[in-house]
Amino acid sequence: MTGTANPAFEARRGVAVEATGVRKTFGPIHAVDGVDLELAAGRIYGLLGPNGSGKTTLIRLLTGLAQPAGGEVHVLGTKMPSREALSRIGYMPQSEALYPELSVAENLGFFARLEGRSGRAAIDRVLELVELGDRRGSPVLELSGGMRRRLSLAITLVHEPPVLFLDEPTVGVDPALRVQFWSHFRRLAAGGTTILVASHVMDEADRCDELLFMRGGKVIGQGTGRELRARTGSENLEDAFLRLAGLDSEGRPLGDRGAVEGRPS
Ligand SMILES: Nc1ncnc2c1ncn2[C@@H]1O[C@H](COP(=O)(O)OP(=O)(O)O)[C@@H](O)[C@H]1O
Ligand SMILES: [Mg+2]
Predict the structure, then answer these.
(1) Architecture of 7-88+161-250 per CATH?
(2) Which residues place a Cβ less than 5 A from the ion ligand 2?
(3) What is the DSSP string of the chain?
């Protein structure tokens, strides 16, 4: 199916990704349960929530790889799913889809060609970025978990897409390289790239411009870290998350002490 650019969305300048009432079920499980969001161009959003809260499913809906049971997604003005929009999206899946028998460079070349980018220069640039230049001839099955994450990121970035969806990109990546990844994300955002990064740990949250807290398939809070802390009267983001989820600092239900409203009214 080919998506058509929707002038109403194009007119809304600065909005790169928009979801309205998007839902996805697996049998009885409401993996994504009515999510509305708007991601502004050139910003980094952190999608935070515990395992099973629906982050991966939401990202797959936003990329158009999963079909919603309800609701709509637009990326850069195009209704998803759209084949044509895929060239403008970079998606780093949580579990990588690499060819274990092929070398680092062969994997990268394969995916770059799929995106119409076979240039050696583009490949060298991303390999250098993820510090895999000296492993370009190694078969993927000989790489460590962190190296595979890095290769997967290189594949996501090689066609320089304006919208990036990164599903737990830094899991297994050592701290020094993690810092470099984040400075690269920041440079990309400064150049106008919109980035959504999923994470189940809060320690990367402060590097994001804005956060979306997910729980039980819903976005229970959105805003800057500072806003979310202020709104919940919390000192840190973990506590803010718990308050928004209606839990006390031990993770027990607050009951009629009430949950805090996640969005500004
Ligand atoms: N392909 C699938 N089949 C059945 N259930 C699924 C599938 N994918 C995800 N789920 C369920 O949907 C919920 C959300 O999962 P997921 O989006 O992977 O969460 P997260 O990425 O936050 O860990 C979980 O309950 C998970 O078990
Ligand atoms: Mg996930």
Answers:
(1) 3-Layer(aba) Sandwich (3.40)
(2) 55-56, 94
(3) ----B-HHHHHSTTEEEEEEEEEEEETTEEEEEEEEEEEETT-EEEEE--TTSSHHHHHHHHHTSS--SEEEEEETTEESS-HHHHTTEEEE-SS----TTSBHHHHHHHHHHHTT---HHHHHHHHHHTT-GGGTTSBGGGS-HHHHHHHHHHHHHTT--SEEEEESTTTT--HHHHHHHHHHHHHHHHTT-EEEEEESSGGGGGGSSEEEEEETTEEEEEE-HHHHHHHHT-SSHHHHHHHHTTB-TTS-B-GGG-PPPSS--
